[in-house]
Amino acid sequence: MKITILGTGTSCGVPVIGCQCEVCQSRDPRDQRLRCSILVETLSTRLVVDCGPDFRQQILPQPFRRIDGILVTHSHYDHVGGMDDIRPYCQFGQIKVYADAVARKGMLEMLPYCFAEHRYPGVPKIELNVVEAGEAFRIGDIDILPIEVMHGQLPILGYRFGRFAYITDMKTMADDQTTLLNGVDTLVVNALRFDKPHHSHQVVDDAIAFARRVGARRTLLTHMCHDIGLFDAATARLPQGVELAYDGQVLEIEP
After folding, report:
1. What predicted TM-score, i.e. pTM, was given to this entire model?
2. What's the confidence (pLDDT) of residue 99?
3. Considering only CA atoms, which of 200, 196, 187, 198 is closest in space to residue 245?
């Protein structure tokens, strides 16, 4: 299974508009972070996790072929704001989107024209499916396990694909959900910045502690803001087995 990291930034992205800090002015492409998303692929199946406002830019370099499903973590704009840009992929058929009941409600409110009884010609053709934490399902040849994550007080979803798990926007996770990650080898998890705590997101120390709790061999940090620091300097502060993810990174995951 191939994982392409499409974006590793927070809701503002990096560089932040108008910011003159050293990270936002950096020429290192690893310091430039689009909104969070990944592409999950096998030879026969292709999934996207989250479709934020940078989706068009993220997907243009990728081969143009069918998307078999879009998995939504939650309906905040930085995670679903690019849903209209899936229109070209509708030539392959209706796009199946998977979300929990809370995210489904948010998407119906945010994108009402996509779900109207009489739709304007040309709008995305979306089949919106509700999934629940702990209830596994399969798309093509990929097994998917949704896991409940708390984004502050908001329940959202992370996703497990075999020995790989993807979790973003987490502050906490209940013990019964953490057990669903037993045996995960590679973990991508959010870490907003070093030091200063946040009310609804993990910071780096939280993410490291969570990775140790899960027992992942390799942990990559995502959903980072410019306060994380320059890529090389931030990397030097991390323990063995933990690294910063970067946009465009490709991971090969064994079954």
Report:
1. 0.97
2. 98
3. 187
